[in-house]
Specification:
The complex is a heterodimer. Chain A is α/β, with parallel strands linked by helices. Chain A contains twelve helices and 14 strands. In chain B, strand 4 and strand 5 form a beta hairpin.
Amino acid sequence: MGTMTIAKGINNGLRAAMERDPKVVLMGEDIGKLGGVFRVTDGLQKDFGEDRVIDTPLAEAGIVGTAIGMALRGYRPVVEIQFDGFIYPAFDHIVSQVAKMRARSLGKVKLPMVIRIPVGGGIGAVEHHSESNEAYFAHTAGLKVVCCSNAEDAYWMIQQAIESDDPVLFYEPKRRYWDKGEVDESAAPRPLLEAKVVREGTDATLIAYGPMVKTCLQAAEAAAAEGKDLEVIDLRTLSPLDLDTVVASVEKTGRTIVVHEASTFLGMGAEIAAALQQRCFYHLEAPVLRVGGYNLPYPPSKLEEEFLPDLDRVLDAVDRSLAF
Amino acid sequence: MSDNAVASTGEQTGTRPAEDDVLAELTAPVPEVGDGGPEMVQLLTPEGQRVENTEYDEYVKDLTDEDLRGFYRDLVLIRRVDAEATALQRQGELGIWASLLGQEAAQVGSGRAMRPQDYAFPTYREHGVAWCRGVDPLNLLGLFRGVNHGGWDPNEKNFHLYTIVIGAQTLHATGYAMGIQRDGDVGTGDADRDAAVIAYFGDGASAQGDVNEAFVYAAVNNAPVVFFCQNNQWAISEPNERQTRIPLYQRARGFGFPGVRVDGNDVLAVYAVAKQALDAARSGQGPTFVEAYTYRMGAHTTSDDPTKYRVSAEVEVWKHRDPIERLKSYLVHTAKADQAFFDSVDAEADELAGTVREGCLSMPDPTGDSMFDHVYVEPHPVVEAERREFAEYHAGFATEGGH
């Protein structure tokens, strides 16, 4: 048991996975001596060597493309994409090769690889450094997409993703990298593909993942002061979705708001809303509401606080749901 | 600063002839489909005459007459399989076929230069390489018939699945080679252990970012990979001059590894050049770019119409460079094979074509629910739910069977 940041949780998780399995290799830009621009791989090249922590050329298609080859040879590559907005050069390899290789081979090939992506805004960055593109990949059959929101999950989920025989996109909430939390390194972890009720409540359910989990917990605290009892779910896995946990909660509360940084149009919230009206139509007391980024290119950082969901926008949606 | 630099260069025009020559060479129009030029490695002329080559002769010196007859057999059989597949497509039994007609020597020469532990990453036209690796031609037909997307076990013959996205496999090949390095299976001197990878692609793919990134990754990692480009002169309808301003093999120099152009219709030369490159890779000397200068005698695929973009005179020129006739002529005038041998190969080819045809026609269609198999390794709730839905939907028709 110890207190650590999310970044350190991932770092420790990577270290544990590498100690356990010599086939685990890390690949990415600046992940060696520098330890990555967010220092998530800090110290790993020093301890595991340049053959296992590989500083790659600056070419994302090349990173993912060669990682595929490494996986075909029997390795478990863990790829770091430096920022969310830099994944697109590798998009073809992810959706056309990583996702489809197993089906193409009729089950004779597996690609156990993890693609780590720092995700989301709120850090005052220039363009391409604040995006939330998880829905592109959640839309692609053959991939698994998960997102951690706290240090304990960071530590365990990265190890579970590495152990998965299926390819996993592992989203890391970059603005929360330095948030600290308790990590029990000896406890049995929750299964990777399960959502978690992180706050129990009875009046409405807030559904979030990654950076918005903290926002929703803060919103629930604020709502409690006004006598509203909100449940908060951390989805943790975006593909597949753990709908059973979500449905159980919404059947209890009857009202729900999905919150994510990504634009709402065809985002995760749209899928969740569609699933909920199918699975618990008669339990719904109000339409499923969504709070997310506006349907715009990510704005300059001076505007990002107005673009991103925050506590007030979540509470506004809660009021609208409760008033319905 | 840069403006000044340009101006000063301009003032000196005419006083630095060497630089002007370089510039002229770099900006000269790329010749149209030619004979490959003086730097092209050739061991057999189109007429089947053996040409001495001090660098590459040693790579073919151990080939026996039986080996040479084996090459001939490979060339004839795979051309016959290819012709049968084209016919099957014309008869509606295949959705499409990508013919290798004209490229047999490039594929057989390189395929036979591989050792069992080497690994090939093909495009979708490497039927001849597949043949050399021992992949059943029927496996290839499944993809073109639409019963699967490939479906063979790549690790069985070290022949990866066909890759349709142009150039993507060059990166996979490079990563696989990086894995070989980490396994310590390079440069040990153990002929049965040291392994190399060969990445196939074409002149069109040379323009892809993936291919250029693969060159960079292979170079900086000194990875044991041979980039084997079959320059068949045409990327569907676009000739070489739409892809490159310099001969492709010369690009390798810019990436920091050797490049060599070989007569892709000369199976002996291709074997020698590929063997040298594979040997170098296995021994730890890193990548080589091989440009096999050849010609796509047929259409890009059965859906293509080359009469829209190229002249028949060009095709006629290349008919005289045919890879099979060239080797046959050599075997005949050196008395390394007799008519009985050629007759027996023809008979075997006909028999193989019959087997391929029969196998194609009797290939079972996949069952509907099989599309839910193999999406993920581990159980997946969405796939399983939809599999159930699909089964229930179709079971509904069964219970209405009275209608």
